[in-house]
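Invent a record, attention on tokens:
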Amino acid sequence: MELNIAGKLLEVTNEGYLIDFNQWDESIAEAIAKENNITLSPRHWEVISYLQNEYKNNVQLSIRKIGNSKVVDIKEFYQLFPQGPLKTATKIAGIPKPVSCL
């Protein structure tokens, strides 16, 4: 399906995840974050960058892996992305929903 995100018509899954990561940009991240009542701070961007790098390296993401990453601990991850941190953070980062998310 297609959604208008940040003034761009984008193909997304039925849960709102981008189908083509190459369409992602910071304005899309800002728009998705706003929909989730999140104002992106420099700390959010650090986590988003980490998630995107892991995705590009074909690393399977999980809460535990992120908590062990030295980038962010689990408590802070939940503070930054309070409602379903891994689902929300990956959606904002423009990457597919992790297998570990229900």
